[in-house]
Amino acid sequence: DQQVKQNSPSLSVQEGRISILNCxxxxxxxxxxxxxxxxxxxxxxxxxSISSIKDKNEDGRFTVFLNKSAKHLSxxxxxxxxxxxxxxxxxxxxxxxxxxxxxGTSLTVIP
Amino acid sequence: xxxxxxxxxxxxxxxxxQVTLSCSPISGHRSxxxxxxxxxxxxxxxxxxxxxxxxxxGNFPGRFSGRQFSNSRSEMNVSTLELGDSALYLCAxxxxxxxxxxxxxGTRLTVL
Lengths: 111, 112
Hints:
The structure holds 2 protein chains of 2 kinds. Chain A is mostly beta strands. Chain A has strands spanning 4-5, 10-14, 19-25, 32-38, 45-51, 56-59, 62-67, 72-77, 86-93, 100-101, 105-110. In chain A, strands 2, 4, 5, 9, 10 and 11 form a 6-stranded mixed sheet that branches. Chain A is globular and about 40 Å long. Chain B is built from no helices and 11 strands. The radius of gyration of chain B is 13 Å and the shape is globular. The interface between A and B is medium-sized, with 25 and 25 residues.
């Protein structure tokens, strides 16, 4: 049972525009969420996190939004750059237990 | 500070064999988690070790096992390999379970 879902396997965005990656979860006990970026032949790299007590966290060009009532998480990248082209995974955990990962969204930023 | 290292990076085995993968966490990190990544399945949690004890286990058969040593280095073993075990195996370390996990580059296992 996939508790964390990324329903868009791929996304293409023009350079300079906004990239929006979405993530849905089913477990209302999840209280900590992360986004990872993964390049081919490398392990995932931590990008940004948010706890359930907040609804937004910002770090430079990256902003994560959390809508607890909708059990929905999104990552906004503004402006998108070609180097952002990678696979993005969202992950969630409940009370410090194991992390559940989504299946990933492959982002392509077109120059 | 050195990152998480995994050895070997690539491995080719045949069905029925067993394999051992190694992970060295970031210095000072005591929690090591293992994940299996296959196309379309994302990262599936295998198990987590903390101070040489398995604290959590995912939904994988008993052929998958692991251990952690006193220096926090961890090994993962898969016995009686099946074709479906072909995957990228990722190791992640953190100070504790609740902290951000830092991943190694993974071991690409191919079972023929």
